[in-house]
Amino acid sequence: MVPREVKPSEIAGAFVVRDPKWRSKIFVGGLLLLLVHPVGWPVALGYRKALIAHLSSGQDPLLPDWNRKIPYYFCEGMKAMGVIFGYLSPLYFALLLIILANGGTPDLTWLFTAIFFMIFIMLSTLSFPAIVSYQTFLSDKSHLSWPIAFLLLTCFAAIIFFIPAGFLQVSKSGRYLSAFNIAAASNTIRMHFVPYCIAWYRSAIMSFVGHLAFPFSPWGVFWCYLSIIYEFNSILTSERHDASPTDWFE
Length: 250
Hints:
By secondary structure, this protein is mostly helical. It contains nine helices and no strands.
């Protein structure tokens, strides 16, 4: 079956409707995010990696199937989480050392924070700014000064901005370890700086809409995850010299 044409003017978020079964596939993804918190987010991340393969090879149907593949998506998603927190781990380590050096000690707040973000793992990347904000403004004994907090949050924002470029290296190679090829990721941003910033801008809007689509937020979030993948990976279209002639990006 020949893939249907995707018009260049089509917005990233609309590409999913090119799959005849897009409603049921989005429904399952949103349901996993809603009901299976510790599992749903890794599964969604793994599903996105499978989507990249479909997009770049022109596979039809466009969206990957769910049947009997959830364990596989979960494993792939855990690898993706390893990339995200691999990038962020130096910041967490630095934050811990600063808090301990300023007299902070583990207490029930630390335990409750860890439990909360383990249950609602989809929010886990927000744990760093949450901890910094708490230790700076809300803790009875502030263990972080404003300048240090500002520096930590600036570094956090810079790393978050950089991480999609790392994942684009995974799109090229199919291997998660390539996400840590800092030179290649930096070169991707350098060569496509404006499109990369535009992808971030559009992704932020889609994420905002998806998260606020109450009471359908889980499905809105899953939709925006797929759309963000499309948006960033479309940056690499000009580099796909060996792409399939039926490449969905083309």
